[in-house]
Amino acid sequence: MAKKQTAGRDNLGDFAPQFAALNDDVLFGQVWARESEMSPRDRSLITCSALMAQGLFPQLESHMKIAKQNGVTKDEMVELITHLAFYAGWPKAWSAFGIAKKIFTD
Protein backbone atom coordinates (compact mmCIF):
# COMPACT_ATOMS: atom_id res chain seq x y z
CA MET A 1 0.00 0.00 0.00
CA ALA A 2 1.26 3.46 -0.91
CA LYS A 3 2.51 5.67 1.89
CA LYS A 4 0.22 8.64 2.67
CA GLN A 5 1.76 11.70 1.07
CA THR A 6 1.79 14.99 2.95
CA ALA A 7 4.48 16.91 1.04
CA GLY A 8 1.93 19.22 -0.55
CA ARG A 9 0.39 20.27 2.73
CA ASP A 10 3.75 20.34 4.50
CA ASN A 11 5.32 22.65 1.92
CA LEU A 12 2.42 24.61 0.42
CA GLY A 13 -0.57 24.04 2.69
CA ASP A 14 -0.73 27.63 3.95
CA PHE A 15 0.32 29.24 0.67
CA ALA A 16 -1.56 27.17 -1.94
CA PRO A 17 -3.99 24.91 -0.07
CA GLN A 18 -5.93 23.69 -3.12
CA PHE A 19 -2.76 22.72 -4.98
CA ALA A 20 -1.47 21.00 -1.84
CA ALA A 21 -4.70 19.03 -1.51
CA LEU A 22 -4.63 17.99 -5.18
CA ASN A 23 -1.01 16.86 -4.81
CA ASP A 24 -1.58 14.83 -1.66
CA ASP A 25 -5.12 13.56 -2.18
CA VAL A 26 -5.48 13.16 -5.95
CA LEU A 27 -2.01 12.60 -7.40
CA PHE A 28 -0.60 10.56 -4.54
CA GLY A 29 -3.83 9.57 -2.80
CA GLN A 30 -5.75 8.35 -5.84
CA VAL A 31 -3.45 7.96 -8.85
CA TRP A 32 -0.44 6.44 -7.07
CA ALA A 33 -2.77 4.29 -4.96
CA ARG A 34 -4.07 2.39 -8.01
CA GLU A 35 -1.75 -0.50 -7.26
CA SER A 36 -3.94 -3.11 -8.94
CA GLU A 37 -3.43 -1.25 -12.24
CA MET A 38 0.32 -0.57 -11.83
CA SER A 39 2.77 -1.17 -9.02
CA PRO A 40 4.37 1.72 -7.13
CA ARG A 41 7.74 0.41 -8.36
CA ASP A 42 6.68 0.74 -12.00
CA ARG A 43 5.13 4.15 -11.37
CA SER A 44 8.44 5.23 -9.85
CA LEU A 45 10.40 4.08 -12.91
CA ILE A 46 8.03 5.97 -15.21
CA THR A 47 8.04 9.09 -13.05
CA CYS A 48 11.83 9.18 -12.77
CA SER A 49 12.06 8.76 -16.54
CA ALA A 50 9.70 11.64 -17.20
CA LEU A 51 11.41 13.95 -14.71
CA MET A 52 14.88 13.18 -16.07
CA ALA A 53 13.71 13.72 -19.65
CA GLN A 54 12.39 17.15 -18.70
CA GLY A 55 15.46 18.06 -16.65
CA LEU A 56 13.43 18.54 -13.47
CA PHE A 57 16.23 17.54 -11.13
CA PRO A 58 14.88 18.74 -7.74
CA GLN A 59 11.75 16.65 -8.33
CA LEU A 60 13.84 13.80 -9.74
CA GLU A 61 15.80 13.64 -6.50
CA SER A 62 12.61 13.36 -4.45
CA HIS A 63 11.22 10.69 -6.75
CA MET A 64 14.46 8.70 -6.79
CA LYS A 65 14.16 8.47 -3.01
CA ILE A 66 10.58 7.24 -3.42
CA ALA A 67 11.73 4.81 -6.15
CA LYS A 68 14.29 3.31 -3.79
CA GLN A 69 11.58 2.88 -1.13
CA ASN A 70 9.39 1.26 -3.80
CA GLY A 71 12.03 -1.37 -4.54
CA VAL A 72 13.89 0.09 -7.52
CA THR A 73 17.50 -1.08 -7.30
CA LYS A 74 20.68 0.85 -8.01
CA ASP A 75 21.29 -1.30 -11.08
CA GLU A 76 17.81 -0.57 -12.42
CA MET A 77 18.23 3.18 -11.89
CA VAL A 78 21.64 3.10 -13.58
CA GLU A 79 20.09 1.28 -16.54
CA LEU A 80 17.19 3.73 -16.70
CA ILE A 81 19.55 6.71 -16.81
CA THR A 82 21.91 5.06 -19.32
CA HIS A 83 19.01 4.20 -21.63
CA LEU A 84 17.49 7.67 -21.41
CA ALA A 85 20.82 9.38 -22.04
CA PHE A 86 20.33 8.62 -25.74
CA TYR A 87 16.76 9.95 -25.80
CA ALA A 88 16.77 12.77 -23.26
CA GLY A 89 20.34 14.01 -23.56
CA TRP A 90 23.80 13.25 -22.26
CA PRO A 91 24.02 16.27 -19.90
CA LYS A 92 20.73 15.28 -18.28
CA ALA A 93 22.11 11.80 -17.71
CA TRP A 94 25.20 13.23 -16.03
CA SER A 95 22.99 15.29 -13.73
CA ALA A 96 20.74 12.31 -12.99
CA PHE A 97 23.75 10.12 -12.20
CA GLY A 98 24.93 12.65 -9.64
CA ILE A 99 21.58 12.37 -7.88
CA ALA A 100 21.39 8.59 -8.19
CA LYS A 101 24.92 8.13 -6.84
CA LYS A 102 23.98 10.11 -3.74
CA ILE A 103 20.72 8.20 -3.18
CA PHE A 104 21.75 4.66 -4.11
CA THR A 105 25.18 4.64 -2.44
CA ASP A 106 24.70 3.53 1.14
Description of the structure:
This protein has 106 residues and is mainly alpha-helical. It folds into two domains: 1-37, no CATH class; 39-106, Up-down Bundle (AhpD-like), CATH 1.20.1290.10. It has helices at residues 7-12, 17-31, 40-54, 57-69, 74-88, 90-104. The protein has six helices and no strands. Pfam families: CMD (PF02627). It comes from Secundilactobacillus folii.
Evaluate the radius of gyration: 14 Å
| Count of β-strands | 0
The CA-CA distance between the termini, in Å, is 25 Å
Beta-strand percentage range: under 5%
Q: What share of the residues lie within helices? A: over 70%
Reported for the largest beta sheet, the result is:
none
Structure annotation, total helices: 6
CATH architecture of the largest domain: Up-down Bundle
Q: What is the total number of structural domains?
A: 2
Shape field: globular
Highest CATH level, the class of the largest domain: Mainly Alpha
What name goes with the CATH superfamily of the largest domain? AhpD-like
- N-to-C SSE series? HHHHHH
Q: Would you tell me the structural class of the helices and strands?
A: mainly alpha
Organism: Secundilactobacillus folii
GO molecular function, one term: peroxiredoxin activity
Protein name: Carboxymuconolactone decarboxylase family protein
InterPro entries: 4CMD/NDH-1_regulator, AhpD-like, CMD-like
